[in-house]
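Page 47, continued from p. 46.
Same chain as before, 146 aa.
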Amino acid sequence: MTEYITHSAAETEEKAAALAQSLARGTVIGFLGELGAGKTAFTRGFVQGLGITAEVSSPTFAICNDYGGENARVMHYDMYRVDGWDDLESVGFFDALDSGAYVLCEWSENIFGALPDDALIVRIEKRGETERQFKIYTKAEFQQSI
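Result:
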């Protein structure tokens, strides 16, 4: 497990950008964290870290935002309203896993069983108005921690 604390959205973006540069294509990240915890800020930094120029926003209403650049692609899902394997199929989740894109999933607790075994889990906790604590686990480490 890796752990760090950020004190602003900009610092969250900076840490996420550095992480993005260290991960292989096709990495899947599942986010855990309450509304407003910083999942979209993390994604914004992650996308920037891959050199993708895009306006990153929460995929709440679209369910999936697709950010593509010259050398990388990020599929950013909101799984809050996804309920079951049929929904995952209809939103293209399984195709995204096979595409080589980075797949980032907000509200991943709703689809935890569908995440690949090598997925990373990012748990974000609000510790104040702008301070956030990030804990990054492998899926196996996370399962052992609960």
